[in-house]
Amino acid sequence: GAGVSQSPSNKVTEKGKDVELRCDPISGHTALYWYRQSLGQGLEFLIYFQGNSAPDKSGLPSDRFSAERTGGSVSTLTIQRTQQEDSAVYLCASSLDLAKNIQYFGAGTRLSVL
Amino acid sequence: GEDVEQSLFLSVREGDSSVINCTYTDSSSTYLYWYKQEPGAGLQLLTYIFSNMDMKQDQRLTVLLNKKDKHLSLRIADTQTGDSAIYFCAEDGNNRLAFGKGNQVVVIP
């Protein structure tokens, strides 16, 4: 596609529910990244993929967070048993590869946990 | 570790120049970046500079990099109302970007 596409753009959920956020990177980009933006924490790195592989999961805030990428393209970030502190904007970015690390961002998914 | 610092707020008159500053800590960064974020929008990549350069000019944007002091700046010439946004600097390393807290620029017509 022309740019990084994220869906949904907004998600309101109840505490304790699971949510799935989707990211479709720029066509041909092999590296994909998830970040979280919240008022208190600024922009935090969560996880990156090279192809379908995520070598470093240490940025995920808790074991309720998981991410996968299939076919070297679309990625989903899943948050289980959501908590109010998970409320944030979740941003996805992609780059050509890890070496050429110029990252282009999507518009984000605004998650509100009630 | 990575730690990027920015000042918080800048008010500028339309047509004047704006300068936003940033300090970073990771001297092994390959690139340093400036992103722009308008209300309710994602991060727009404005420009980036390779770490072995000290200046890059791109139309109204000038980036200066002082590696010795780990200082990065963005100058916007002829600032326009559409430049009102939050500007983030970022450094790369360890396959991720580390961002500053952002600098809000308000352009007064």
Description:
The complex is a heterodimer of chains A (114) and B (109). By secondary structure, chain A is an all-beta fold. Helices cover 0% and strands 48% of the residues of chain A. In chain A, the strands form two sheets. In chain A, strands 2, 4, 5, 8, 9 and 10 form a six-stranded mixed sheet that branches. In chain A, strand 8 and strand 9 form a beta hairpin. The termini of chain A are far apart. Chain B is mainly β and 109 residues long. Chain B is built from no helices and eleven strands. Chain B starts with a strand and ends with a strand. In chain B, 0% of the residues lie in helices and 58% in strands. The chains are: A mainly beta (114), B mainly beta (109). The interface between A and B is medium-sized, with 23 and 20 residues.
SSE layout and pairings?
The complex is a heterodimer of chains A (114) and B (109).
Chain A: E1 5-7, E2 10-13, E3 19-24, E4 31-38, E5 42-50, E6 65-69, E7 75-79, E8 88-95, E9 104-105, E10 109-113
Parallel strand pairs in A: 2-10
Antiparallel strand pairs in A: 1-3, 3-7, 4-5, 4-8, 6-7, 8-9, 8-10
Chain B: E1 5-6, E2 9-13, E3 18-23, E4 31-37, E5 43-50, E6 55-58, E7 61-66, E8 71-76, E9 85-93, E10 96-99, E11 103-108
Helix content of chain A: under 10%
Straight-line distance between termini of chain B: 41 Å
- Tell me about the largest β-sheet of chain A: 6 strands, mixed
Radius of gyration of CA atoms of chain A, rounded to a whole number:
13 Å
The tally of beta strands of chain A, per DSSP, is 10
